Amino acid sequence: MLQRTLTAAVGIPVLVAAVWFGSPGLTVLIAVVAVLGVREFYGLRPKGVSPLPVVLGMIWAVAFVVGAQASSDLNSFLVISFIIMVVGAGACLLWLIAYYTSGRPVTASIYLLAGPVYAGFLLAHALALHEIGDTSGESLVASGVVSDLVSSQAGRDWLLFTLLIVFGTDTGAYLVGKTFGTHAMAPVISPSKTWEGAAGGFIFALVIAAIASYALDLDIPLWQAMVIGACVGVVTQAGDLFESKLKRMSNVKDASSIIPGHGGVLDRLDSVVVSIPLVYYLVATVFEP
Question: CB 3.0 to 4.6 Å from 120: which of 34, 115, 128, 228, for a disulfide?
Answer without folding.
Answer: 34
